[in-house]
């Protein structure tokens, strides 16, 4: 068997396993999707979310981005670390205490301000886009190397996979 065939088989089996897990453990409600149904402690919930963002896909994607772009890509790593891991671990207990599922909802209600909520939304979008740009570029690089396709086509395939997998959670 050629290396390409082995790549397709291994990656196909991996995706099949992930999809099977996603379908079997599908969230029944929005609250369950965002906060594990309230059945875990705030700290454990924060750690689980942080662990999700520190997945192998993230490391592989970031490594691909740094390999192609050099050290200029380190800004994506800073956005990833500061924006997701620290914010999640530090904010989740307060989100749970106030009964909110998102940081903008918490900020808006905590400070009784629609303007503060709007600023939190803009910050969340900026942090997410900084993270997503690096990860999607890295996914494109990894797929282009594995399957001999162009990086933009690899980004499109990666985005479609993420979209489908996230859709299974709801």
Automatic annotation (TrEMBL):
Membrane topology: Multi-pass membrane protein
The keyword Signal is assigned to this record: no
One Pfam family here: SSF
PROSITE patterns: NA_SOLUT_SYMP_3
Protein name: Cation acetate symporter
Keywords: Membrane, Transmembrane, Transmembrane helix, Transport
Coiled coil: none
Listed Gene3D superfamilies: Sodium/glucose cotransporter
UniProt main location, coarse: membrane
Transmembrane portions of the chain: 6-23, 53-71, 77-95, 115-134, 146-168
Subcellular location: Membrane
Recorded family membership: Belongs to the sodium:solute symporter (SSF) (TC 2.A.21) family.
Organism annotation: Coraliomargarita algicola
